[in-house]
Amino acid sequence: MLSNIGVPGLILILVLALIIFGPKKLPEIGRAFGETLREFKKSTRDLTSDVMEELEDDTKKNTVK
């Protein structure tokens, strides 16, 4: 989806964001977006590791029987 935007589309989006939010608000928005993305990645990693641990536990229980 994002690969179809291209450089001109990305520049247009950045210019529109600058016009709408202004130069003082953009760093705050970028920081908040970065923190949100980082938290999402951390949650995804934690969920994946929990599922893998459960699968390993089930595999160990099945091989012991």
UniProtKB/TrEMBL annotation:
GO terms for cellular component: TAT protein transport complex. One of its GO terms (biological process) is protein transport by the Tat complex. GO terms for molecular function: protein transmembrane transporter activity. Gene3D superfamilies: 1.20.5.3310. The keyword Cell membrane applies. The chain crosses the membrane at residues 6-23. It is found in: Cell membrane; Membrane. It holds the Pfam family TatA_B_E. Keywords: Cell membrane, Membrane, Protein transport, Translocation, Transmembrane, Transmembrane helix, Transport. Part of the twin-arginine translocation (Tat) system that transports large folded proteins containing a characteristic twin-arginine motif in their signal peptide across the thylakoid membrane. Involved in delta pH-dependent protein transport required for chloroplast development, especially thylakoid membrane formation. TATC and TATB mediate precursor recognition, whereas TATA facilitates translocation. This is Sec-independent protein translocase protein TatA. The lineage of its organism: Bacteria, Bacillati, Bacillota, Bacilli, Bacillales.
